Each structure stands twice: as structure tokens, then as C-alpha cells.
Amino acid sequence: MGESKFLPVRTCIGCGKKGGKADFIKIVKNKNGEVFVNADKEIFGRGAYICRDGKCVAKAEKKNRLSRTLKLSDCADIYQKLNEIIGD
Ligand SMILES: [Zn+2]
């Protein structure tokens, strides 16, 4: 049993691009149902990744990708926060 060399591949919920975690903004819902966007510490829970690109946020919102991935009914605040982080 050596150290694991496994590097998880992240996929953008907007465009489907794959990459490492540094390429994306991470959205996590912990077991208490609290949602963290771009947290500066590791949060354990159900996670989603999205490019730092407003087009991906718009795509994900249109297709309700975040709701499905995180099992949340209303993600409007999260999309708003993502847009704030990305700016334009
Ligand atoms: Zn993307």
C-alpha cells in the first residue's frame, strides 16, 4: 500500500470541460445542507465544479445543473454568488 497517486478529475457543470481543482470554482454542500462557494478551506460533502467563466454559470443555471448535482431546489443565490466571484 503506497501513497495514492489518484488525482480526481473535475468536470465543469456548465461546459463539461475536465481539469484539476485549481481550474474551477468549487461549490460544496455539507451534510447539514449548508452551501459553500469557493471556500478557502476543505469542506466535505457533495461538490460541484464550474469554470471561472460567466458563460458556464449561465449554462449551468439554464440547465439546472447545480440543483441536480447538489440536490437543492433553489440555487439562485449560489449562481448570484458565482457571478459576483467571476465578475465581468
Ligand atoms: Zn465550464
UniProtKB/TrEMBL annotation:
Coiled-coil residue spans: none
Domain of life: Bacteria
Pfam families for the chain: YlxR
InterPro entries: YlxR (IPR037465), YlxR-like_sf (IPR035931), YlxR_dom (IPR007393)
Domain YlxR: 10-83
SUPFAM superfamilies xrefs: YlxR-like (SSF64376)
Protein name: YlxR family protein
